[in-house]
Design a protein that fits this description.
mainly alpha
């Protein structure tokens, strides 16, 4: 368009070409603004899903440890939930839920006199040995050791 404007001697054609160039640049600018607005809206929606997920985990982690439960509540697929949690929190959805349960187990070990079996049952782990194995993998100590070190 620029070369047409420079090479064309008729001022009438130059004005028409300048108007077309201006319209083209305006449309490109609008398209960029729409794209950035859509991206911002998408990011806001993702952050709302994450906040709702975290709130729901805090309410339900003792009874539900499956990703499908939380995805169903948020009306999204488990894969999409895992994708956004991994991107924004740096861990899988399952790991986030497990971390919340382990943190609650730590709290119960320090501030209550519940047995390890009772804590395991309260947090709905399949077996006490499974709970101990996950706790040790996550914390580095067995629940008994953790309780002993942190009660002093």
């Amino acid at each position: 368009m620029k070369s047409e404007i420079d090479n064309n001697s008729s001022s009438k054609d130059q004005h028409l070409l300048r108007a077309m160039l201006y319209e083209t640049l305006t449309l490109i600018n609008r398209a960029e603004n729409v794209t950035s607005t859509v991206n911002a809206d998408t990011e806001i929606a993702v952050l709302r899903y994450i906040a709702a997920f975290q709130k729901q985990v805090n309410e339900d982690f003792e009874t539900h440890c499956d990703v499908k439960h939380y995805a169903d509540i948020l009306c999204i697929t488990p894969n999409y939930l895992n994708k956004i949690i991994t991107q924004h929190l740096g861990m899988s959805t399952k790991q986030y839920i497990l971390n919340r349960a382990i943190n609650e187990a730590k709290r119960l070990l320090i501030y209550t006199s519940l047995s390890i079996t009772e804590i395991s049952e309260k947090l709905h782990f399949n077996t006490t040995s499974y709970f101990v194995r996950l706790f040790r993998k996550s914390v580095g100590d067995t629940p008994s050791q953790f309780r002993e070190y942190n009660r002093q």
